[in-house]
Design goal:
The protein is of the alpha/beta class. It folds into 7 domains: about 5-145, DNA repair protein MutS, domain I (MutS, DNA mismatch repair protein, domain I, 3-Layer(aba) Sandwich); about 155-300, Nucleotidyltransferase, domain 5 (2-Layer Sandwich); about 330-340 and about 350-445 and about 595-615, MutS, DNA mismatch repair protein, Chain A, domain 3 (Orthogonal Bundle), CATH 1.10.1420.10; about 475-580, MutS, DNA mismatch repair protein, Chain A, domain 3 (Orthogonal Bundle), CATH 1.10.1420.10; about 615-840, Rossmann fold (3-Layer(aba) Sandwich), CATH 3.40.50.300; about 845-875; about 885-924. It is built from 32 helices and 27 strands. The protein has a 7-stranded mixed β-sheet, with helices on both faces. A 6-stranded mixed β-sheet has the order 3-4-2-1-5-6, sandwiched between helices. The chain has a 6-stranded mixed β-sheet with strand order 11-10-7-8-9-12. Helix 17 packs across helix 19 (about 445-455). It is elongated, with a radius of gyration of 38 Å. About 40% of the residues are buried.
C-alpha cells in the first residue's frame, strides 16, 4: 500500500467508524467505506514499511494486500480474497499462530523481515466497550535475520550475529560492532575500510546495519551488492557516538564506560546503533547482553575472504559443511561448545601467552582420558542455557527454557565437583588457568535448581500459555483449583450417565464447544422425546443439527460456569507462577551467563583433546619467531577421509620455512614447489596453512612435531574462478587476489600461492610469476609456499638466497605414472599432464596426438633455445596440424625430392645424401 491509498482508506473510515471486525471477512461495507479494523491495519503497516505484517486475528496471523501476495508465493500457501477495499478485492492469506515459527523461518531465509502485531486485549474485554468495539493491537516484535532467538529458527551450533558499522563524524574512524542476541556476546573493533570485507567473512553476520550515507560510497558498493540480503541501511542519526555512549551507560547502569575499555568514537557509534536497533525490534525489551569487549585487530590472525574460502574452514567450495575443516574437528557435545569452537577456528590468536593457555587446557584433558570421558558425558546432558536465558528475558521463553537453565546449572555443579575431586585425588599436576577460571564460573546455585526441580513437571509444554507445567504439590492454591476443575469434569461424566438413565437413551452425550459451552447431544431420532413433556421440563432445546439435536439444563449451565472459572483461574495462576520463576532466574542472569560460558570452554577443551587422541595430533610449540617447522605434517581433512575409507595411510611431509640463519642452511623463506599434476602440491600447501590456523586457535595439530612462529596474516590463493557479475575473468580475479597479497603481507605473514600466472599466455604468466617470487623474497620477506608448473622459476635459486626448490616425487613404471605424494628437495623437469589426461579419460587418439606435439615442442625448444617463442618453433610454422595432413605433406616432400633426381648423373656420395634426406623426412 502506498501513502495515498492509506490516506484515502483513513478518510473513508470516517464514513463508518463503528463497523465491527467481521465486516472485512463479510465484505458487507460499500466500496467507498473502510472498516475500523482495516484502518488499524493500514496505520500499523504504514509505521513499518519494508516489513511483512503478521496481523493477529484469533488463532491466525493474517496478511493483506501486497504482503499477502508476497508471503503466499514464498510459503506456498493459498491466496484468498476477503471483502473489498477501494472497489477492489482484498488479497489475504494467513498462518496459524501455533505454527508461525516454521513460516517465519522460510520468510527470513528468503531475505524478508516480519512485524508481529498481537492482540493486546481479550476480545471479551473489547466487547464491554460496545458490541462493535475494536480489539486493541500493537507491534510486539520486529523479526529480522540478525535478531532471532527462537530455537527453531537458529542453528544451535553457529552464532547468529547482528553487526553494525560505526562511522565517527570525521569520517575516518571506522568500527565494527557485533552481538549475538541469543547468547549476549557483544564485541567491537576498529578497522580500516580495506579490512571490512575480511571481517565480514570472519563473522558472517545474519544482518549488518550501516549508516545510509555509506550505501553509495564507492569503496563499498561491490561489498553491499555481494551481501545485499544482509545489509540494513539506517539513518545516520542512529549512529551518533554521543548517543551510543548514553545508551551503553543506561543499559549497563554505569556512569562511565572506562571499566569496559577505551572506545573510539566510531566504536561507540557502532555499539550504540546495535543497542538502539535491538531495543527497536524487541519493542523496548533487551536480551541479557554482556558488556562490549574491545577486540584489537592485531590480536587475531587476519584472513581475507578468498583465503577462508580456499581453505574451506567452515564450508567447502560447494557450500557444504560436510568436508570442511570444522566438520572433522567438531567433537563438541553441546551447542554452546560448537559455537565457541567455530568462533576460535575463524579467529585464531596472535598472542603466544593466550595460545599457550588454551593449549594447556587441551593438554590437561589429553593426559586424563578417564576424566575427559566423564566430563564429556555430563556435558552431553547440558542444555543450551545461554539461549534459554535470552528467551526468558525477552518474555519469549517457556517452561522448557526454565528446565534448560535448571539442568544446565545442575550439570555445572556436577562438573565442578568432578574436576575438583579429580584434582584432589590424583597425580594431575594442577589445573590450567583457563580451566580453573571455568570451574569458578560453575558456581553453585542449588537453591534455584531445587526450586525449579520442585516446580516443574517432567513433561513440559513448549509455551507457558498451554498450562499443565507446574508440579502437583508445589503450590497449594493451584492444586485446589485443579481439583475443582478435575472433579467438576468427573461430575460431567456422572451427569451423562444419569441423563442416559433418565431419558432411556444410552447414546446421550455431554459435549463442549467454545460457542455453547457444555450441552447435551442426542441423535435426530431422539430429539422429539427430549422436547416433549415431561423431559422438556428438564432439557431446554438449544440447537438442531443435520444429524443431532442439542439441549442444555439449568444444572449443566451452573456446572459449566464453575468449571470454566476454575480452569481459567488455574491457568492464570500457572502464568503467575511462571513469571515468578522467570524473575528468580533473571535475578541470577550474570551468574547463569558465566556458567554457560564455562561449560562451553570445558566442552571445547575436552573436545579438542578427544580429537587429538583419536587422530594422533601433537601439541605445537608456538613462539614469537618467524620459523615454521613442521615434521610429518598431514592435511586434517584428507587424513580423516582416508581413515574413513579403510585406514589408508596419509603420506606425511615436512615443511621448514624461516629466515636463513648462520649454521642452519636448511631454512628458506620461500619454498618453490614443483611437481606433476595430481601429485599433491595443493594438498601440501593447504595442510601447512591449516596447521598454522589450528595451532594459533589453541588446538593440537596433525603432525609429529610442529614449531610455529606467530603468523599475523595468512593468505591463500589456491585456484580461482571468474566473477562474471563484476565483469572479472578468471585471470583478473587471480591478479586481484595476488595484488592483495603483495600489498598487505608483512614479514610475519604466511603466503600460500598456487599456479600464479597460469591463466594467461605462457610467457606473460611466466614473467608475472617470476616477478611475484622476487617481490615476495625482496620486499615482503614473508614465509611462502609457491607451487608452480613454470619449471624455469627453479633457476631463481641461484639469484635469491632465501629461496629453495622442493618437488613432489613421482615414479614412472611401464609407461604409467605413480604419484608418491612425497615432498623432497629438488625440482621437477616435467608436469606429466598428458598422463593425468589419460587418467581423466581423454580419448586415446587425443592423448597420443598430444604426446607427438609435446615431443616435437621439446625437440624444437632444445634446438632454438629456452627463450624461443612459439612462433619461432618449426612445429607451428611448418608442422602438419593433424596426422592426415602430416602424412600428405610427407608424401609431397618425398615426391618433390624424387622428381629432382637425375639417376644417370648421380655419384655414389650424392645418392647417399638423398637416402639420408628421405630417412629424415620419414623420421620427422
Amino acid at each position: 500500500m502506498n501513502e495515498a491509498s492509506i490516506k484515502s482508506a483513513q478518510q473513508a473510515a470516517a464514513v463508518s467508524p463503528e463497523a465491527p471486525e467481521k465486516d472485512l471477512a463479510a465484505g458487507s461495507k460499500s466500496a467507498t467505506q473502510v472498516t475500523p479494523m482495516m484502518v488499524q491495519y493500514l496505520a500499523i503497516k504504514q509505521q513499518h514499511p519494508g516489513y511483512l505484517l503478521f496481523y493477529r486475528m484469533g488463532d491466525f496471523y493474517e496478511l493483506f494486500f501486497d504482503d499477502a501476495r508476497t508471503a503466499a508465493a514464498i510459503l506456498g500457501i493459498t491466496l484468498t480474497k476477503r471483502g473489498k477495499h477501494l472497489d477492489e478485492d482484498i488479497p489475504m492469506c494467513g498462518v496459524p499462530v501455533r505454527a508461525a515459527d516454521s513460516y517465519l523461518e522460510r520468510l527470513i531465509q528468503s531475505g524478508r523481515k516480519v512485524a508481529i502485531c498481537e492482540q493486546t486485549e481479550d476480545p471479551q474485554e473489547a466487547k464491554k466497550r460496545g458490541p462493535k468495539a475494536l480489539v486493541r493491537r500493537e507491534i510486539a516484535r520486529l523479526v529480522t535475520p540478525g535478531t532471532l532467538t527462537e530455537e527453531t529458527l537458529l542453528d544451535s551450533r553457529s552464532h547468529n550475529y547482528l553487526a553494525a558499522l560505526g562511522l565517527a563524524s570525521a569520517g575516518r574512524d571506522l568500527a565494527l560492532a557485533w552481538l549475538d542476541m541469543s547468547t549476549g556476546d557483544f564485541n567491537v573493533t576498529s578497522l580500516e575500510a580495506a579490512s571490512l570485507e575480511a571481517e565480514l567473512a570472519r563473522l558472517e553476520p545474519g544482518e549488518l546495519l550501516i549508516p545510509d550515507v555509506l550505501l553509495d560510497a564507492p569503496e563499498f558498493r561491490r561489498l553491499w551488492r555481494q551481501r545485499q540480503s544482509m545489509v540494513t541501511p539506517l539513518p545516520r542519526s542512529r549512529f551518533d557516538s554521543d548517543g551510543g555512549a548514553r545508551r551503553l551507560k543506561a543499559l549497563f547502569k554505569v556512569s562511565a564506560l572506562d571499566g569496559f575499555g577505551d572506545f573510539s568514537r566510531g566504536e561507540l557509534a557502532a555499539c550504540g546503533a546495535l543497542v538502539d536497533y535491538v531495543e527497536l525490534t524487541q519493542v523496548g525489551r533487551l536480551p541479557p547482553l554482556k558488556p562490549p569487549k574491545r577486540q584489537p585487530t592485531d590480536s587475531r590472525l587476519v584472513m581475507d575472504a578468498a583465503t577462508r574460502t580456499n581453505l574451506e574452514l567452515t564450508a567447502t567450495l560447494k557450500g557444504s559443511r560436510k568436508g570442511s575443516l570444522v566438520a572433522i574437528m567438531d567433537k563438541t557435545v553441546t551447542g554452546a561448545g560448537a559455537r565457541l569452537l567455530q568462533q576460535r577456528l575463524t579467529s585464531p590468536l596472535t598472542s603466544v601467552d593466550e595460545i599457550g593457555a588454551r593449549l594447556d587446557s587441551v593438554d590437561f584433558f589429553v593426559e586424563a582420558p578417564d576424566l575427559r570421558g566423564q566430563t564429556r558425558e555430563h556435558l552431553r546432558q547440558t542444555p543450551d542455557m545461554a539461549r534459554a536465558l535470552s528467551r526468558v528475558q525477552l518474555n519469549r521463553g517457556g517452561p522448557r527454557d526454565l528446565a534448560a537453565i535448571r539442568d544446565g546449572l545442575d550439570q555445572g555443579g556436577y562438573l565442578r565437583r568432578l574436576l575438583n575431586d579429580a584434582l584432589a585425588s590424583s597425580s594431575l599436576a594442577g589445573i590450567p588457568a583457563e580451566l580453573a577460571q571455568a570451574i569458578d564460573g560453575l558456581g553453585c546455585h542449588g537453591d534455584l535448581v531445587d526450586e525449579l526441580r520442585r516446580a516443574l513437571n517432567p513433561d513440559l509444554p513448549l509455551l507457558a500459555r498451554d498450562g499443565g507445567f507446574i508440579s502437583p504439590g508445589y503450590h497449594a492454591p493451584l492444586d485446589e483449583m485443579r481439583r475443582l476443575r478435575d472433579q467438576s469434569r468427573q461430575v460431567i461424566a456422572g451427569l451423562q450417565a444419569r441423563y442416559a438413565d433418565q431419558t432411556a437413551i444410552k447414546s446421550v452425550k455431554v459435549r463442549h464447544n467454545n460457542v455453547l459451552g457444555y450441552f447435551v447431544e442426542v441423535s435426530q431420532q431422539y430429539g422429539d422425546r427430549l422436547m416433549s413433556p415431561p423431559l422438556s421440563e428438564t432439557f431446554i432445546h438449544r440447537q438442531t443439527m443435520a444429524n443431532a439435536v442439542r439441549f442444555t439444563t439449568v444444572e449443566l449451565g451452573e456446572l459449566d460456569t464453575k468449571i470454566t472459572r476454575a480452569a481459567d483461574q488455574a491457568l492464570a495462576l500457572e502464568q503467575e507462577l511462571f513469571g515468578d520463576l522467570a524473575n528468580r532466574v533473571l535475578a541470577l542472569r550474570d551468574d547463569i551467563m558465566r556458567a554457560a560460558d564455562a561449560l562451553a570452554v570445558l566442552d571445547v577443551s575436552s573436545a579438542l583433546a578427544e580429537l587429538a587422541a583419536q587422530q594422533r595430533y601433537a601439541r605445537p610449540h608456538v613462539e614469537a619467531s618467524r620459523r615454521l617447522h613442521i615434521k610429518q605434517g598431514r592435511h586434517p581433512v584428507v587424513d580423516a577421509a582416508l581413515q574413513a575409507q579403510g585406514d589408508i595411510p596419509f603420506v606425511a611431509n615436512d615443511c621448514r620455512l624461516g629466515p636463513p640463519r648462520e649454521g642452519d642452511s636448511d631454512d628458506a623463506l620461500i619454498w618453490l614447489v614443483t611437481g606433476p599434476n595430481m601429485a599433491g602440491k595443493s594438498t601440501f600447501l593447504r595442510q601447512n596453512a591449516l596447521i598454522v590456523i589450528l595451532a594459533q586457535m589453541g588446538s593440537f595439530v596433525p603432525a609429529y612435531e610442529a614449531r610455529i612462529g606467530i603468523v599475523d596474516r595468512l593468505f591463500s590463493r589456491v585456484g580461482a574462478a571468474d566473477d562474471l557479475a563484476q565483469g572479472r575473468s578468471t585471470f583478473m580475479v587471480e591478479m586481484v587476489e595476488t595484488a592483495a597479497i603483495l600489498n598487505q603481507a608483512s614479514e610475519r605473514s604466511l603466503v600460500i600461492l598456487d599456479e600464479v600466472g597460469r591463466g594467461t599466455a605462457t610467457f606473460d604468466g611466466l614473467s608475472i610469476a617470476w616477478a611475484v617470487v622476487e617481490h615476495l623474497h625482496d620486499a615482503n620477506r614473508c614465509r611462502t609456499l609457491f607451487a608452480t608448473h613454470f619449471h624455469e622459476l627453479t633457476a631463481l635459486t641461484g639469484k635469491l638466497t632465501a629461496l629453495a626448490n622442493v618437488t613432489v616425487r613421482v615414479k614412472e613404471w611401464q609407461g604409467e605414472v605413480v604419484f608418491l605424494h612425497e615432498v623432497t628437495a629438488g625440482s621437477a623437469d616435467r608436469s606429466y599432464g598428458i598422463q593425468v589426461a589419460k587418467l581423466a579419460g581423454l580419448p586415446a587418439n587425443v592423448t597420443e596426438r598430444a604426446e607427438q606435439v609435446l615431443l616435437r615442442l621439446e625437440q624444437d625448444r632444445r634446438t632454438n633455445g629456452p627463450t624461443a617463442t612459439l612462433d619461432d618453433l618449426p612445429l607451428f610454422s611448418s608442422m602438419a596440424q593433424n596426422p592426415a595432413d602430416e602424412g600428405r605433406d610427407k608424401v609431397s616432400e618425398i615426391e618433390h625430392i624424387l622428381a629432382d633426381i637425375h639417376a644417370d648423373d648421380l655419384s655414389p656420395r650424392k645418392a647417399l645424401e638423398i637416402i639420408y634426406s628421405l630417412k629424415a623426412v620419414m623420421r620427422d
